[in-house]
Design goal:
This protein has about 270 residues and is of the alpha/beta class. The chain is about 40% helix and about 20% strand. It is built from 7 helices and 9 strands, in the order E-E-H-E-H-E-E-E-H-E-H-H-E-H-H-E. Helix 1 (about 15-45) crosses helix 6. The two termini are about 35 Å apart.
Length: about 270
């Protein structure tokens, strides 16, 4: 299995199919969450010369924005277990490196900012991964972790007023069950404030962002159901007809779809 932004990808799928689905999810996550992420990083004070570690980068939108903010005197290290998303050779201040945050030693550099979005929820050893990020901070450095909390708002359609909305919510429940079976923690996001304080960080704060009714919500829903179709049907969590009917409903644009809440939590070392 490989992880792509909160979903486990089956390596048995043809590589072009995996990459197409991953690309669709990257685009949806960028549209849904980049403004929130960038706003938090701005408030943390990013500027020229900062050294940043983007953990589990998965795509280019965040690292490209960070690189522009730190300028030629800064440094951006982007790591992931799969760097096939990199479409061209990285140039200063960006370096791309294959790295498993839950298994490999942390980079030795002291970073001004360490950021991870939709990474830890389905990492096998979340505690080790978090400790690795904490150790990589310089004194005074900032850690920003953003994770989904599927259990905080578990519905695809919070306004459940008809059969189409009921079907959407039943399928969202199936997706949650499938991810939990694979080792994901659907309630991990809400634990972050406590975990960062226990890790020794100060000035810990947290916010929740719940996207509702946007083209990106529909795009993410479509890409997720298409990717997980075979697994959902094999596990008896949905039928092919259920999924086809739901995707047809999504395509009409009449569903007010919500993405899982993103909990952003940050703190300062020392």
């Amino acid at each position: 299995m490989m992880r792509i932004d909160g979903h486990l990808l089956d390596a048995r799928q043809p590589i072009d199919q995996r990459q197409t689905g991953a690309g669709q999810r990257f685009d949806a996550f960028a549209a849904l969450f980049d403004p929130t992420t960038f706003g938090h990083v701005e408030r943390l004070g990013i500027g020229p010369g900062w050294r940043c570690w983007e953990v589990g980068a998965g795509g280019t939108s965040v690292v490209s924005w960070l690189a522009r903010r730190v300028g030629p005197t800064g440094r951006i290290l982007a790591t992931d277990i799969d760097t096939s998303w990199q479409t061209r050779a990285a140039r200063s201040p960006l370096e791309v490196r294959v790295h498993d945050v839950a298994a490999d030693p942390p980079p030795v550099e002291g970073f001004d900012l360490v950021h991870a979005r939709l990474v830890l929820i389905d990492v096998a050893d979340r505690e080790r991964a978090l400790q690795s990020m904490l150790r990589a901070l310089r004194p005074g450095g900032r850690l920003l972790i953003e994770e989904a909390d599927h259990a905080l708002q578990p519905l695809a359609c919070p306004d459940e007023y008809g059969p189409a909305q009921e079907l959407a919510n039943r399928l969202r429940h199936g997706v949650r069950a499938l991810l939990a079976e694979r080792g994901a923690d659907p309630a991990y996001g809400r634990k972050l404030p406590r975990l960062l304080r226990e890790g020794g960080l100060r000035q810990v704060e947290s916010e929740v962002h719940i996207p509702l009714t946007s083209p990106a919500c529909a795009a993410l829903e479509t890409a997720t159901l298409q990717h997980l179709r075979a697994d959902l049907t094999a596990a008896g969590l949905a039928t092919t007809e259920d999924i086809d009917d739901h995707l047809t409903n999504v395509a009409t644009g009449a569903l007010d779809l919500a993405a899982p809440p993103l909990i952003s939590t940050w703190g300062r070392k020392g």
